[in-house]
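User: Second chain of the day. Same drill as before.
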Amino acid sequence: MKKLGVAVVGTGFWGRNHARIFKDLEETELLAVSDMSAERAKSTAQQFGVRAYSDTGIMLRNKDIEAVSICTWSTSLAKVALKALKAGKHVLVEKPMAANVKQARTLLETAEKEGLHLTVGFLMRFIPGIQHVKKAVKDKTIGELVCATAKRVSQWPERIGDVGVVKDTAIHDIDIMGYLFNEEPIAVYAKTGSMMHRKFEDYAQIMLTFEGGKNAFIESNWLTPYKTRTLVATGSTAIMKLDYITQELTIESAKESVQPRYPMQEPLKLELQHFARCVSKKEKPLITGIDGLKALTIAEAALKSSATAKAIKLK
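Assistant: Same format as last time:
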């Protein structure tokens, strides 16, 4: 199979991880990296033996580059992704996809018009345990899904400077809740704030309401001394608990508690491999630009809910 020519825009911590995996995948050939910092771009390019660019526009003229990962600051993601789409490149854009819903819609319209793949970096869906939870919910092996609770807390990440905890971290769990319930929430109520008096919110408690009285609860903050990443799916006959960090899954029923064994895998590798295969085989990706738009819409509704102290109904 012909390798897919790829490039990475943004060579910070996460962008370097994208470059590392693209370099190692059998499906892809990493051709270039780009960063507004010429020094950082050069350092990453030397590490992986590819060409460095400080001007993304020039890099996108390379016809051998068919697909691009966008790993820039959150507020510049849409601008760079739009440039890549207009240059005829398939795009994987990191969450939160765009600075606002209007930008996200523009990306969707452009990708559709150009006939290009647009997917969003919701990494959690590629953690193997999530697929086990999703299947159990779908097959009703835990009965009816009653509610789900996510906890995503840690210390303040020094890399963050242009968005708050809702669009940076809680948006992962917003996406996962819609994925598990297999439907969109009808309302959101949230409380957010900045306990450490930062420019953006550093804590959030979000409640999503679904049809039939089902609910999801999301706790996210940058105030906790150690990192916790967990999901609990409560069914009418069993409860599933997933630790995203260790990838350990526990299933508890009235009779027993079991821990299924499955190989631990790097979710970013699975995500990028899936992206490359979907582009090469012209298949629909697990996560589409529409999923990104939905999650961003809910994240903005959560911020509005907190600002107005009211529940926000979702269309």
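Residues 4-116 form a domain with the Rossmann fold fold (CATH 3.40.50.720).

User: Great, on to the next one.
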